[in-house]
Write a structure and sequence with these properties.
nine-stranded antiparallel β-sheet, six-stranded antiparallel β-sheet, 0% helix
Amino acid sequence: MTIYPNTIALVPYFDDWTHCGLHVLELPPGMTVSIPTRENETLVLPLAGSFVVTCEGEEFELAGRPNVFAGPTDFAYAPRDSTVKIFTEHGGRFALPSARAERRLPARYGPVGGVPIELRGAGRASRQVNNFCTPETFDADKLIAVEVITPGGNWSSFPPHKHDEHRPGEESVLEEIYYFEFSDHEGTPGLGYQRVSPSGQGRNTDVLAEVRGGDVVLIPDGWHGPSMAVPGHHMYYLNVMAGPEDDRAWLICDHPDHAWVRDTWAEQPVDPRLPLYTAPEKS
């Protein structure tokens, strides 16, 4: 993948990372960037600002959003072996989640009204998930992508879970990328923490990282979670997933030491700060 000016985050494909990628760019007003997708199906996802996307002779006007905490967004899909041109009149920031693809699907527009918003967990494990590109909500060959918003002081990606073994109907093999942004308070930026622990049998990823806006954590394997937002600052992360399996499925396995926590959620209310926002009605 070509590295462009004003790159905030870049996850290229390399020998030990082969199924999904991510590029985050900040463009100044009036700028156009042209990006070849090569073997990768790719989304254009506004993080801040609005954009005009041209691909395969189609033009998509993305209304976007002021920032990731203001609402969900519309997006565009670009197939493999194409070129996507992105223009912004007023400037902005966008993400390009991608996955190695075999099928070549048509370029398409993803309307904001078609983004299901889900509340998961309860109490201090409450979070909001924008399921904009899951197998149930948007057709793609391999790519799975969602946005998660965790209110300040809460834990998400909990209980810890994994998807690094092929167990039909129970668990699928998926690489995963976490890209983070945080709300600020009176100009002070937020931060959080991400845990990934080894799941055994040669799967030895072991991470405990402080994360700030623009940071990325790669998860090739292992139990991942919790993702912890410090009090006073909401945490956003974009999850990008893809794997080698024929079936585009997001099947996870909870950590046996912590799975019991799900049973406690029925007795607790969801954090009253959620939903942080809702998607507009479908037109």
